[in-house]
Amino acid sequence: MSPSGNEQSSLSREQAAALLAFYLEAGVSDALGDEPVNRYALADAAPVAAAPRETARPETQRGARPDPRGEAAPAPAPAPRAAAPSSIPLEDAQAAESAREIAARCKTLDELKQALGAFEGCPLRYTAKNLVFADGNPQARIMLIGEAPGRDEDLQGLPFVGRAGQLLDRMLAAIGLDRTGVYIVNTLPWRPPGNRTPTPAEHAVCMPFVERHVELVNPDFLVLLGGVSAKQMLRTDTGIMRLRGKWASVEVNGRAVPALPTLHPAYLLRQPAQKQLAWRDLLSLKARLNG
Ligand code: URA
Predict the structure, then answer these.
(1) Which atom of ligand 1 approaches the CA of 63 most closely?
(2) For site-directed labelling of 3, which of 45, 175, 199, 236 has its Cα 20 to 30 A away?
(3) How many angstroms separate the most distant Cα atoms in the chain?
């Protein structure tokens, strides 16, 4: 998609501007290199984990990955929050540790937002346009956790405002809720470029903020939207098709918060026949809420 070095040098300023305008019109929203860059190789630190391939996904594909490991055991009991996995590069492990210390010092959501805004340990902040902190009502009994912002969310600085978000709003409305009755965050507060899959290192660095976010909001119920959110929050490799609809729990400040994994609205946009499963999950949530 990007011009080669030769083409670049032969383009006049006007031609380059016209080419960019053409790309924009054709729907290109991110500039990705043709060749992957192993940024870990640039760091001195060892051990070095293999960086996942950067694969662009449209916004509506968030949460849409089928999980090949869907046959594993059901959701585990709440796992105590742990240090970053040892498989990530040392500098990311250090950033995760620093994130944990910074997040722990935040006593309010405003402080947490400020701290995230100033946090430089996650490179996603440099490719994203905006921090996507949260939306909805922090006093609500339900906290929804999605995967990561897409293009629309990045532009507006709010979670779930694109097509998937519109479907989420309709799903909530079906059980009598709207954004005044829920609080919404993502496992990552910055958009991965081109909506590529978040890396383990990005999650390790950002999860302390998500966990502190849950502690500060202290909801009655968590709803984990999609496989990425469910895996991160429940610390499991089990696939979303096995997890969905089964209440699990996430330990927060020594308290086990009931957590319901369900299908991601972006997945439902691509697989509308699965809405019947999401509907069952919504009814289960409503029953818990009213019970
Ligand atoms: N998908 C997500 O997981 N989060 C958003 O905010 C938008 C789409």
Answers:
(1) 3
(2) 199
(3) 68
- pLDDT single digits (tens) 238-270: 999 999 999 999 998 899 999 999 999 999 999
Task: Work out which ligand 1 atom sits closest to the CA atom of 164.
Answer: 8
- Ligand 1, residues at Cβ distance < 6 Å: 62-63, 146-150, 153, 159-160, 162, 164-165, 186, 266
CATH of span 90-289: 3.40.470.10
What's the gap in Å between 237 CA and the centre of ligand 1? 20
Measured CA distances, 247 to 66, 175, 195 (Å): 20, 18, 29
Phi-psi domain of 28 (left: phi exceeds 0; alpha: psi -120 through 50; beta: other)? beta
Contact 40/49 with Cβ under 8 angstroms?
yes
- pLDDT tens-digit map of 180-206: 999 999 999 999 999 999 999 999 999
How would you write the chain as a 3-class SS string? Answer: CCCCHHHHHHCCHHHHHHHHHHHHHCCCCCCCCCCCCCHHHHCCCCCCCCCCCCCCCCHHHCCCCCCCCCCCCCCCCCCCCCCCCCCCCHHHHHHHHHHHHHHHHCCCHHHHHHHHHHCCCCCHHHHCCCCCCCEECCCCCEEEEECCCCHHHHHHCCCCCCHHHHHHHHHHHHCCCCCCCEEEEECCCCCCHHHCCCCHHHHHHHHHHHHHHHHHHCCCEEEEEHHHHHHHHHCCCCCHHHHCCCCEEEEECCEEEEEEEECCHHHHHHCHHHHHHHHHHHHHHHHHHHC
**pLDDT at site 62:** 61
